[in-house]
Design a protein that fits this description.
10 helices, alpha/beta, two-stranded antiparallel ribbon, eight-stranded mixed sheet
Length: about 325
């Protein structure tokens, strides 16, 4: 019996020692897949940017849906979710929960290729995607914390109008929590963006989606395969119905909490969807973009300048080498 107990203890010890090694191997493999996937996103974004310079546009809504198909992400809609407003007819601000880098791919695919408001710091993490999105007009970069002479709310209102004019026909995603968080209940909403929405008079819809941090988690360098994302969409809130801005902000905060509870509580009654796009959302088709916005034209100019300099240096170096060879040949005669 003593020998049997000792053998069982040895087996448990070996199994316990093997578990950390297996876990470490899994993390290593998942980390490698994470960087390969991120590299693939940057490569396809670079190709899309080059296509943009040539006068055509790839739909970022379709491309992000493609990314999610690679990960075998599945989608469902909470039973009480409302249809997404048609943002091809008017500007709409979609307030989404901010969980991880995966938010950009998921929310873009869900809403059919909207614009996004983002800090310039994001461009350092995803440079090719940032260059493509900024050049095309669907990434609205701004510098957080900068002092504005006319006041932040007024400046942001003008910034939204100008940015939407550069990429019309779709709404914009705003992450009102202000930063990424995996807290079970999220973070309190920042009121600045909501005040801008009230000033602009643009309708607002809350769009809460579960498990986005499992699709792509930059903190743990991991990808989720076969993740199910459940989305709840609120009824639209119209600023014209709220004369006082504070009343509008209070209504948005209440709607945010209710929509959050509906999304995260929809475990059994959620309705599966075959595709990423939410009911009511309209995908923005690929279009010709020549001529187009100043950002794209500036990118084209830089690209052509770089190509000209490289070609000129190539010809100049080739010409010098030929001359040297010819001189040596002449001297030998």
């Amino acid at each position: 019996e003593m020998g049997g107990n000792g053998g069982g203890g040895q087996a448990r010890a070996v199994a316990s020692a093997a578990r950390p090694r297996a876990s470490g191997c899994y993390r290593l493999v998942n980390g490698a897949l994470f960087f390969l996937f991120l590299l693939y996103i940057q490569a396809t974004s670079l190709v899309s940017f080059i296509v943009l310079l040539l006068g055509a546009a790839v739909s970022h809504g379709a491309l992000t849906a493609h990314y999610l198909r690679i990960l075998r992400t599945s989608f469902a809609t909470a039973a009480g979710a409302r249809p997404v407003l048609d943002d091809t007819k008017r500007p709409v601000i979609f307030l989404c929960n901010h969980r991880s880098w995966g938010d950009f791919w998921v929310d873009c695919a869900l809403l059919g290729g909207t614009s996004f408001v983002s800090r310039w710091a994001v461009a350092f993490a995803i440079p090719c995607a940032a260059l493509w999105g900024w050049s095309h007009g669907w990434l609205w970069f701004f510098k957080r914390g900068a002092k504005r002479a006319e006041g932040t709310t007024k400046w942001m209102g003008n910034f939204f109008r100008h940015s939407h004019a550069a990429f019309p026909g779709k709404g914009v995603v705003l992450y009102p929590e202000g930063t990424r968080t995996t807290e079970p209940k999220g973070l309190p909403l920042k009121h600045g963006g909501l005040a801008v929405a009230h000033q602009l008079g643009w309708p607002v819809q809350v769009v809460i989606t579960t498990n986005k941090e499992q699709v792509m988690a930059e903190r743990s360098l991991s990808l989720g395969f076969g993740t199910k994302c459940v989305t709840s969409v609120s009824a639209p809130l119209w600023p014209r119905d709220y004369e006082v801005c504070d009343d509008f902000i209070a209504a948005v905060c209440t709607t945010w909490r209710n929509t959050w509870e509906e999304a995260y509580g929809a475990s059994t009654d959620a309705v599966s969807r075959p595709h990423a796009v939410l009911p009511g959302a309209t995908s923005r088709p690929a279009t010709s973009v020549a001529p187009c916005r100043s950002g794209t034209n500036l990118a084209r100019l830089c690209f052509l300048t770089f190509a000209f300099i490289w070609f000129w240096r190539f010809l100049y170096a080739g010409g010098n080498n030929t001359t040297i060879v010819d001189l040596h040949a002449f001297g030998s005669r």
